[in-house]
């Protein structure tokens, strides 16, 4: 099963922007979608499906309207890449499984409080511990510029784009430490415009829950890029990063 915690462009852990989480499982065919929005998760039920039933019973999920579903575009960005990656699933993981045998469970994650991120982290931790599942958390990083109403600049870093990179990498370092409290403190201090901060928070809390039970895991970022290099106050850019969480 694959789980994508999402919000806007690929920051794979797959880590994304307006708040979606997907779960892919090879145990049952795709049958419905689960989304998280605002203080709860929203779910659109089409038929009985074990994973959805388990999540629905928690009382933490809500039904999602078709319009809200259609307005969220991030899954459209992810699925072609996921399908392509799964063509090599047999080779990489040595499992007799075709991409068409996998199931996606998308969850739309909204503006959760820290306590809610912790609660959902506990809910998803058991799925994260299952080696047949893969979580994909999608998010952009810093949205910088007047059009984003965010122009943080540390002059000691030199060019504006260097300041943005330093700001992003501070947050990335905390994510690599799998520390949800420090990540929350970082956001409060710098207000970095990371669209997928709440899905990331859910992931960090899920990892923390597993670590309490002796599960060993590590996270490392693999790449970082900016859409453009900001050098003046008239410029703007969006940052992207890719990282991987490995359960040992």
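Q: What amino acid sequence fits the structure above?
A:
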């Amino acid at each position: 099963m694959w789980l994508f915690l999402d919000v806007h462009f690929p920051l794979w852990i797959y880590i994304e922007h307006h708040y979606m989480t997907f779960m892919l499982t090879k145990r049952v065919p795709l049958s419905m979608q689960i989304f998280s929005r605002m203080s709860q998760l929203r779910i659109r039920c089409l038929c009985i499906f074990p994973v959805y039933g388990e999540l629905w019973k928690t009382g933490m999920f809500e039904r999602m309207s078709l319009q809200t579903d259609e307005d969220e575009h991030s899954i459209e960005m992810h699925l072609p890449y996921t399908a392509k990656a799964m063509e090599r699933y047999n080779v990489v993981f040595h499992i007799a499984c075709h991409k068409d045998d996998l199931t996606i469970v998308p969850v739309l994650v909204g503006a959760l409080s820290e306590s809610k991120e912790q609660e959902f982290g506990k809910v998803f931790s058991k799925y994260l511990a299952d080696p047949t599942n893969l979580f994909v958390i999608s998010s952009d990083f810093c949205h910088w510029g007047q059009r984003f109403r965010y122009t943080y600049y540390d002059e000691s870093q030199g060019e504006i784009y260097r300041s943005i990179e330093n700001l992003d990498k501070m947050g990335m370092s905390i994510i690599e430490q799998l520390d949800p409290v420090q990540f929350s403190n970082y956001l409060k201090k710098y207000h970095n415009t990371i669209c997928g901060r709440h899905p990331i928070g859910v992931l960090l809390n899920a990892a923390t829950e597993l670590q309490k039970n002796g599960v060993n895991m590590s996270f490392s970022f693999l790449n970082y890029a900016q859409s453009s290099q900001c050098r003046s106050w008239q410029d703007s850019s969006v940052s992207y990063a890719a990282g991987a969480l490995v359960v040992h």
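Q: And what stands out in the fold?
A: The mean pLDDT is 78.
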